[in-house]
Write a structure and sequence with these properties.
Elements lengths: L3 H9 L7 H6 L11 E6 L4 E6 L4 E7 L4 E6 L4 E5 L4 E6 L4 E7 L4 E6 L5 E6 L4 E6 L4 E7 L4 E7 L5 E7 L5 E7 L6 E5 L6 E7 L5 E7 L6 E6 L4 E7 L10 E6 L5 E6 L4 E6 L4 E7 L4 E6 L6 E5 L4 E7 L3 E8 L4 E7 L6 E2 L5 E4 L4 E8 L6 E5 L6 E4 L5 E6 L7 E3 L2 E5 L4 E4 L3 E4 L45 E9 L8 E2 L5 E10 L6 E4 L6 E6 L23 E4 L3 E8 L9 E9 L32 E8 L1 H16 L4 H20 L2 H17 L1 H4 L2 H15 L4
Parallel strand pairs: 30-38, 40-47
Antiparallel strand pairs: 1-2, 1-28, 2-3, 4-5, 5-6, 6-7, 8-9, 9-10, 10-11, 12-13, 13-14, 14-15, 16-17, 17-18, 18-19, 20-21, 21-22, 22-23, 24-25, 25-26, 26-27, 29-31, 31-34, 32-36, 33-34, 35-38, 36-37, 39-41, 41-45, 42-44, 43-46, 46-47
Length: 717
C-alpha cells in the first residue's frame, strides 16, 4: 500500500473525464453496441480488470503499461492511458488483448474519444501537452503545448465541435481551456471563475448546454462548478457539503443519461454525492469504499460504478429509493478509471486501413481475425500478381506481402475471408501503388527517363526515322493540322444542370491535310479516342469514376479516308465517366490517336499482310473547352426547409424574425428558379447571423454551416 503522501503525488493528480459522450453517447443511449463489460484501470498493479456487468465478476485481467490511470472506450476499442509509460494501450474488447501501444509521452492524465471513434484526445499533467490521436493509424497527429499549465481532465462537447480541458497554473489557480476539435486545434477561450484549487474532471450534460467541473482543494473548500457550455462561461458553484460538514476533496464526476443527476466522488469522506441539475443542489449521499476516485454510469443507466483507490474494489450503486450500494467487486491495486465496452464472440476481421506504396517498395500488413468458435481458415481473392498471404505465429493472423512492379501502378482491392465453419467475415482493403522514383506514367514498363514516348504506351519503342521520338508520339504520314471544337448540346434553359441530369458533349475534330494528292486515314472520333478532362472551379482535376472500355480497332469501319479538309463529330456523355457534385466545372475534350497503327504494319513500317491501311493519322488535337454548372436544387430545398425550421425554433422573437425573413426570401427565390437571388439572400442571412453571434451562442456557427452547405449545393459563387 502506498503512503498517503506518495498517493497524493501519483494518484490524486490522476485525471479521468467521464463525459456524456464518452460514457453515455458511446455506450448507453442509441449505441451501435450494448456494453456488457467494465474496464477498470489498476494504477499500482499495472493492469486492467475486466468485469462482467451482468454477473459483477472479474472475467479477465489485462497487463498494460505503467501506472494506468484513465480508460476511454469507443464502439470498437478500449483505450488505457499509462501515466508513467507515457503510452496509450489499445485493447480489443472481443479478445480482451492489447493490440497496439501508442507512444504519446508525458505524464498522461485525461483521455477522451469522440463520438465517431475517429479521434482520441489525451492530456499530460507535468508536460502540459494536449495530444490528438488518429484512431485509424494509432498515431499522434497533433500536439498543443500549454505548458507551464498542468492539464488534467478532457471532455468532448456532445456536438463534437470542441473540448473542455481542466487545467491549473503553477500557483494552483484552476481554469478550463476550450480547444477546437478542428485542426490545428487552437485554444478558443479560457473559462475562469470559482476554481479554488484544481479544476479536475469535466462532464457535459447530454444536451450540451452545461458542463460540471470538480474543483479539488486541500483546504477543505472543494466544490463543483457549473459552466454555461453554450457560450463557454462560468455560471454557478455548488458547495461540496453542507456548511456544518467540512468538505472533502471532490474528484470523479459523471452525469446520468437524462442529464438530471450529477454524481461526484469525495476522496476524504469515502462517499458519492448526488446533485440535481434542476436546482444545482445536493440531494443524497452514499458511503462507498476507501478513497473513491472515479465514477461512471453503467450502460443500463440504472447503476453507478465507483472505483475505490485505497479499497482495491469497485462499488456498484443504484439510485432508486435513495442512493445505496448494492454490490462490491474486488479488483487490482489502486483502481481508478472506468469505462464500458462490449465483448462479442462474433467472428470478424480487424479493419485494414488503406495501404499505399511506391513501385519497388514492399507492402506488408496483417490480416487478423477476432472471435469465432473454432479453428480459422483464411482465404484470399483478387491478389495482385506476386502478392502472398502467409500464416503468422498466431493462428488468428496471416501476413500479406507484396512488392509491386512498374506495370502495377494503380489501385487494387483484394478480398480476404476468414471462416470458423459456422460463420465468416471479409475485408477488402484499398491498396494503391504509385510510380514513385520509377516514373512510368504510360505503364508500358519503360521508365520515363528512357521512354521515347513517355505519354503513350509503346513497349516496342518503335522509332522508324530514328529521331529519338517514338512513332507513337509523332504523326505518321500526316502533313497538316487537326483541331478540336466542343459544345454542350443539351444545356437546359435554366443554364445549369441538376444532379443526375446527363451532360452530353458534342466534340468535333477538323482535319486539314496539306497534301491532298494522297489519301490519309484518320480514326473516327468516338468516346474512346476523344478524351475528356473535367476541372473544378479551382482548376483541380475531377477523378474519373468510369473508364470507357473499347476493344480492338476495327478496320476499316473505324477509319475515314480523307483527301481534303474534313470535320468529324461525336457525342460523349460526360456523366457516364464522371460523377459531378454541385459546382462549376470546365470540360476539356482532346482527340488523341497517338500509337494507333494497322496491326499488319511492323516496327519498320512495312506492311506484312499486303492489305494495310496506312498512313493512319497519329496526333493529339488541342482541347476544346466548355464550362458547365451543376446544382442540387432538390437537396438545397430540403436543407433550406430544415434551416428555416431551426430558426423558427428560436425563443428570441427578434432573432427569429430577422433571420427568418431572409430565409423565407431565399426559399421564394429558389421556388422561382432564381438561383442568384437565392444565393444573395443566403449571403445576407450569414451576415445577419454573424452580427447576432453574441445572442445566438453556438447556434450561430451551426446556422452558418447549414447556410454554406445550401450555397454549396446551389454552386453559389
Amino acid at each position: 500500500m502506498l503512503a498517503l503522501g506518495a498517493w497524493r503525488d501519483r494518484i490524486v493528480f490522476a485525471v479521468t473525464v467521464v463525459t456524456a459522450a464518452a460514457l453515455l453517447g458511446l455506450v448507453s443511449v442509441g449505441d451501435a453496441f450494448a456494453a456488457t463489460e467494465a474496464y477498470v484501470a489498476n494504477q499500482s498493479s499495472n493492469n486492467v480488470s475486466v468485469i462482467d456487468v451482468a454477473t459483477r465478476s472479474v472475467v479477465a485481467t489485462i497487463t498494460v503499461g505503467a501506472a494506468p490511470r484513465t480508460v476511454a472506450a469507443s464502439a470498437t476499442w478500449v483505450y488505457v492511458a499509462n501515466s508513467s509509460s507515457g503510452t496509450v494501450s489499445v485493447i480489443d474488447p472481443n479478445t480482451r488483448t492489447v493490440v497496439a501501444t501508442i507512444p504519446v509521452g508525458g505524464d498522461l492524465e485525461g483521455l477522451a474519444v469522440n463520438a465517431a471513434g475517429t479521434r482520441l484526445y489525451a492530456t499530460s499533467f507535468q508536460g502540459g501537452d494536449f495530444s490528438v490521436i488518429d484512431t485509424g493509424t494509432n498515431a499522434v497527429i497533433a500536439t498543443v503545448h500549454l505548458s507551464p499549465l498542468k492539464l488534467e481532465g478532457v471532455a468532448v462537447h456532445p456536438d463534437g465541435s470542441r473540448l473542455y480541458v481542466a487545467a491549473r497554473d503553477t500557483s494552483g489557480v484552476g481554469y478550463v481551456k476550450v480547444i477546437s476539435a478542428t485542426a490545428p486545434f487552437p485554444v478558443t477561450s479560457t473559462i475562469t471563475g470559482s476554481f479554488p484549487g484544481e479544476a479536475r474532471f469535466v462532464a457535459f450534460t447530454p444536451d450540451g448546454s452545461r458542463a460540471y467541473v470538480t474543483d479539488l482543494s486541500g483546504a477543505g473548500n472543494s466544490q463543483v462548478s457549473v459552466l454555461n457550455a453554450t457560450n463557454d462561461t462560468y455560471s454557478a458553484t455548488i458547495a461540496g457539503s453542507p456548511a456544518t460538514d467540512a468538505t472533502g476533496r471532490m474528484e470523479g464526476i459523471a452525469i446520468d443519461a437524462s442529464g438530471a443527476v450529477v454524481y461526484v466522488t469525495n476522496l476524504d469522506k469515502n462517499r458519492v454525492t448526488a446533485i440535481t441539475t434542476a436546482t444545482n443542489s445536493i440531494i443524497d449521499n452514499a458511503t462507498v469504499g476507501s478513497f473513491p476516485q472515479r465514477v461512471a454510469i453503467a450502460p443500463s443507466g440504472s447503476e453507478i460504478w465507483v472505483s475505490n483507490g485505497f479499497g482495491g474494489s469497485v462499488s456498484i450503486l443504484v439510485n432508486n429509493d435513495g442512493l445505496r450500494v448494492v454490490a462490491t467487486v474486488a479488483v487490482g491495486t489502486a483502481p481508478a478509471g472506468i469505462a464500458f465496452a462490449d465483448h462479442s464472440s462474433a467472428l470478424a476481421i480487424v479493419p485494414i486501413p488503406p495501404q499505399s506504396k511506391d513501385v519497388g517498395q514492399q507492402m506488408s500488413f496483417d490480416v487478423t481475425a477476432v472471435g469465432g468458435v473454432g479453428p480459422l481458415t483464411f482465404a484470399a481473392q483478387g491478389l495482385p500478381l506476386g502478392a502472398t498471404l502467409n500464416q503468422n505465429e498466431s493462428p488468428n493472423s496471416q501476413q500479406f506481402s507484396w512488392t509491386p512492379s512498374s506495370d502495377q501502378v494503380g489501385t487494387f482491392f483484394p478480398c480476404f475471408t476468414v471462416t470458423d465453419g459456422q460463420s465468416s467475415d471479409s475485408e477488402c482493403p484499398e491498396l494503391t501503388v504509385h510510380a514513385g522514383a520509377f516514373a512510368d506514367q504510360d505503364l508500358d514498363g519503360v521508365p520515363d527517363a528512357q521512354d521515347n514516348c513517355p505519354d503513350v504506351r509503346n513497349p516496342d519503342q518503335a522509332d522508324l526515322n530514328h529521331n529519338g521520338i517514338g512513332d507513337a508520339c509523332e504523326s505518321a504520314g500526316f502533313a497538316g493540322s487537326a483541331s478540336t471544337a466542343t459544345n454542350v448540346n443539351n444545356t437546359p434553359s435554366s443554364g445549369f444542370f441538376t444532379i443526375g441530369t446527363p451532360i452530353v458533349l458534342h466534340a468535333c475534330v477538323t482535319f486539314a491535310p496539306s497534301d491532298t494528292s494522297i489519301t490519309t486515314f484518320v480514326v473516327r472520333p468516338d468516346p474512346f479516342f476523344v478524351l475528356i478532362e473535367v476541372l473544378d472551379a479551382r482548376g483541380n482535376p475531377v477523378p474519373l469514376t468510369n473508364m470507357i472500355e473499347r476493344g480492338l480497332l476495327r478496320l476499316p469501319g473505324d477509319l475515314v479516308a480523307i483527301t481534303s479538309t474534313q470535320t468529324l463529330c461525336t457525342d460523349i456523355a460526360v456523366t457516364d465517366q464522371f460523377s459531378l457534385p454541385p459546382g462549376q466545372f470546365t470540360v476539356n475534350a482532346t482527340y488523341m490517336t497517338l500509337g494507333v497503327k494497322d496491326p499488319g504494319v511492323d516496327k519498320d513500317n512495312n506492311c506484312t499482310d499486303g492489305g494495310c491501311f496506312q498512313p493512319i493519322v497519329q496526333t493529339k488535337a488541342p482541347a476544346g473547352s466548355k464550362t458547365v454548372t451543376v446544382r442540387d436544387t432538390t437537396g438545397a430545398s430540403t436543407a433550406l426547409d430544415l434551416l428555416i425550421a431551426a430558426v423558427n425554433a428560436l425563443n428570441d422573437q427578434g432573432l427569429k424574425g430577422s433571420l427568418g425573413a431572409k430565409l423565407r426570401a431565399a426559399r421564394a427565390a429558389l421556388l422561382r428558379g432564381n438561383i442568384g437571388a437565392t444565393c444573395n439572400q443566403l449571403g445576407a442571412f450569414n451576415n445577419e447571423d454573424a452580427a447576432q453571434a453574441s445572442r445566438l451562442g453556438s447556434q450561430a456557427a451551426d446556422f452558418t454551416n447549414q447556410s454554406n452547405f445550401i450555397k454549396t449545393l446551389l454552386a453559389c459563387s
